[in-house]
Design brief:
single chain; alpha/beta; 8-stranded mixed β-sheet; two-stranded antiparallel ribbon; 9 helices
């Protein structure tokens, strides 16, 4: 296609969302006949829709070779924006349907609680009282990727949020897990500096958990020697039990730890992590989401109790 076609059209595009869906299907399958079968339309109709889309964009989006059709450089660049547009329209339709029938709307809960024990009990207890409730649970440990289209967010207090109201939920002790046969296992509590020469096991570096636990080590006068980073809490505890190193553990929310892990209280500095419940100020609640917010506050208030004692 001529470059002039792009120059003529770039100021006044009027995209058809259905064509974008067709484009995505062809990009995924790299086969017109398979995409047409998936979309329940004829191959000529699909080919025509792709041709019209390319004409509107002003460049070819695919490299064609026999029956195979693959994205070219322009197609790869266009696909990510097509997916964003499709997702935005789908979310818009869902938002309208939620307003029309709020009782069927899923509750969107985002959390960066590193352990899942509290989260599972929290949702189960609510669904016992509201069996028709449905949830979209988004586990998000990265500070820079907060999604502002959720209903509620349970998060560590070191994550700043814009245009949100927040209430404190709970604070839990962070302990040091060491292998049962480790020399430090002879103690019940230690100053953190005693672990300065140990090899540490932790969560992936982009998490707010890692930022906090590294901060405790810096306060104790050392930088942790991290030999393992994991994307889940269970693996951290299992590696400690296997004798691969030591690591910070959440004394309550991570649940039961495997045999072979000794938990040590920490002081100098005292190590703990606090969580808030937040929601957007300008986003209205569905009735069910509002009930869930009150349930969350009551649930954590009832859980107020001393931290688990180290073994």
């Amino acid at each position: 296609m001529k470059e002039s076609a792009f120059n003529r059209r770039r100021g006044g595009l009027c995209m058809d969302i259905l064509r974008l869906r067709y484009f995505r299907a062809v990009a995924q399958t790299e086969n017109i006949s398979q995409a047409a079968e998936k979309l329940l339309i004829s191959q000529p109709a699909l080919s025509k829709a792709i041709s019209l889309l390319e004409d509107e964009v002003g460049v070819a989006l695919f490299q064609r070779s026999g029956r195979r059709i693959a994205l070219n450089e322009y197609g790869h660049a266009f696909l990510k924006y097509a997916e964003l547009a499709i997702d935005a329209v789908d979310r818009g339709v869902s938002a309208v349907r939620e307003i029309e029938n709020p009782s069927t709307a899923p509750i969107r809960l985002q959390t960066n609680i590193t352990g899942e024990l509290y989260l599972i009990e929290l949702i189960r207890s609510f669904r016992r009282a509201h069996p028709g409730a449905t949830f979209e649970v988004i586990k998000n440990y990265t500070k820079s990727k907060f999604l502002y289209d959720c209903d509620l967010y349970i998060h560590a207090v070191n994550i700043p949020l814009n245009k949100c109201a927040s209430l404190p939920l709970f604070t839990e002790e962070l302990v040091l897990g060491v292998p049962a046969g480790h020399p430090l296992a002879a103690y019940d509590h230690i100053p953190l500096r005693m672990a300065r020469n140990e090899e540490f096991i932790g969560l992936i570096r982009s998490t707010s958990w890692t930022e906090e636990t590294n901060g405790f080590c810096f306060q104790a006068g050392f930088k942790p020697n991290v030999v393992y980073t994991c994307d889940g809490t269970e693996m951290v505890a299992k590696l400690i039990a296997a004798g691969e190193g030591v690591g910070f553990l959440a004394a309550q929310s991570w649940g039961a730890f495997p045999e072979g892990v000794k938990l040590l209280h920490l002081d100098d500095p005292l190590c703990s992590r606090s969580y808030n419940l937040s929601w957007q100020i300008d986003k209205p609640f569905t009735p069910l989401a509002e009930q869930f917010r009150e349930h969350i506050l009551a649930y954590f208030k009832a859980r107020e109790a001393p931290s688990r004692q180290p073994r």
